[in-house]
Amino acid sequence: MRERVTDAATPSPEEIGSPLRIANFRAYLIARFTMMVGQYAMMLIISWQTYTLSRQSGMDELAASGQLALIGLLQFLPLFVLSPFSGLVADRFDRKTVARLTIALQFLCAAALAYATYTGAITLVWLFSVAVVLGVVRAFNGPALSALAPNLVPKAILPNAIALSSIAWQTGMIVGPALGGYAYEAQPALPYAVAGVLFLVGILTISTIGKVPHSPITGAQRPIGQIIDGWRYVFRNRMVLGAITLDLMAVFLAGATALFSPFAYDILEVGETGLAQLAAAPAVGAAVTALWFSFRPLKTNVGPKMLWAVAAFGVATIIFGFSRSMPISLAALFVVGAADMFSVYIRQSLIQLHTPDEKRGRVSSASLLTISASNEGGDAFSGFLASILGPAMAVIVGGAGAIATVALWSRIFPVLRTTRTFDPPDELREEIPEEKLQERIP
User: Fold this and answer.
1) How many C-beta atoms surround the C-beta of residue 384 within 10 A?
2) Which residues contact 239 (CB under 8 A, 6 or more apart)?
């Protein structure tokens, strides 16, 4: 049985200081950043090549948008099938090892696409095949990394650590698409080559993390029973379920990012450079918001503020859909990213702090499944909707759907309206003893 740390023995955030003082967390942050830069550089170019190859083959705008729907579907299906099992893997096995293996597989995907692009052999079949592999890899990567972070810092500063982790993630989203777009202009295979190097850096960096405390699984002993235990916890905890599904529905409906390629190619006519700017704009807004929270953590009215942030996300998405001006489009996407990060920060903090460590992998897999349903599944939905209504109208309808989701969820999950702080229930106030964490460097 783990030792319970009483409130009197628990150091305050001021006494602990920044999560960056913890060597393990610094290594984690670098690995997460380099992986995200490589991943988003690669994903942007996969989308761009899919759309442009489709258009160059004679497909019209609607049919080419349908190919983007297929790319999203091919990434989502493996995540949907494997996420329950990947969460159990993150709880049963060493999370650091799982993360290393999944980053290594992403390196192989980047190398394959670099070769195919450089030799001129790249086709839709190549892109679709790699999309499937990336879906499998990300199913296991997400729960392992998400569940690893809370093991590296004391619970008192976990919201700060989540903000810093989100900065690494969002900064990767800024640098990755911009790097991918500009590198593609220089040499089409270059984005994939750079992504491969970054994945290698991520593997080496995460390998430097020392021994990580890991709570044993309790309850059911058979794997299927353990998976059911994790999902049962999600469905019984109204806070966790409401926060997860709010993001699922809002982002699934308002998937503007999935349609950047048709906006850059046909609507705004800004080419690869404009594509990189469109992809970077929401991430800039998100990174600014995350940076703000890393210095000024949110403390009050967290539930209502999350609902308002998702509503703002929907409004900004509608503005982007109507815009035919590049500056207005970039401004709208900046707000989209800022509002999304506001929501992400609150949601992730609530989920991590309201979940026992022994279930974090399985709960993270449930969260990943909804995130994947909203991202990759949302990409497929947006592409399908765009193939019927056109890209602009698909974005506008999706933004309106996100606003409607906020109104509905505030009624279905009233706990989201009444949650004032991040404080977890008393039974979850245990934390990993300080002496088991990586020794800090003064």
Assistant:
1) 18
2) 350, 354, 415, 416, 419
Residue keyed to tokens 């949110």 = 298
Half-sphere exposure for 363 (CA within 13 Å, toward CB): 27
Q: Residue 313 above 70 pLDDT?
A: yes
Mean per-residue pLDDT, 378-384: 78
DSSP conformation letters of 298-358 = --S-HHHHHHHHHHHHHHHHHHHHH--SHHHHHHHHHHHHHHHHHHHHHHHHHHHHTS-GG
Of 352, 357, 361, nearest to 431 (Cα)? 357
CB 428 within 8 A of CB 353: yes
Q: Are 246 and 389 in contact (CB under 8 A)?
A: no
User: Where do the domains of the chain lie?
Assistant: 18-210+220-426
Tell me, yes or no, if the pTM score tops 0.90. Answer: no
What whole-number percentage of the chain has pLDDT above 70? 79
The CA-CA-CA angle for residues 399, 163, 274, to 5°, reads: 50
Structure tokens at 368: 């990943």
33-47, 136-150, 208-222, 367-381: range with lowest mean pLDDT: 208-222
CA-CA distance, 43 to 323, in Å (whole number)? 25
Highest mean pLDDT among 19-28, 53-62, 108-117: 108-117
Give residue-wise pLDDT tens across range 239-282: 778 887 887 788 778 777 778 888 988 899 888 788 888 888 88
Comparing CA positions, the residue from 263, 35, 261 lying closest to residue 148 is 35
Q: Alpha helices of 157-270 — where are they, by DSSP H?
A: 158-186, 190-206, 223-236, 238-253, 260-262
pLDDT at 436 over 50: no
18-210+220-426: CATH superfamily: MFS general substrate transporter like domains (1.20.1250.20)
Q: Checking phi first, is residue 269 left (phi over 0); if not, alpha (psi -120 to 50) or beta?
A: left
pLDDT of residue 144: 78
Which pair of structure tokens corresponds to residue 227? 């998976």
Q: How many helices (H) and strands (E) does the chain have?
A: 16, 0
Beta bridge partners of 440: 22
How does residue 169 score in pLDDT terms, banded at 50, 70 and 90?
confident
The secondary structure of the chain in percent helix, strand, coil, rounded to multiples of 5, reads 80, 0, 20
Contact 160, 121 (CB under 8 A): no
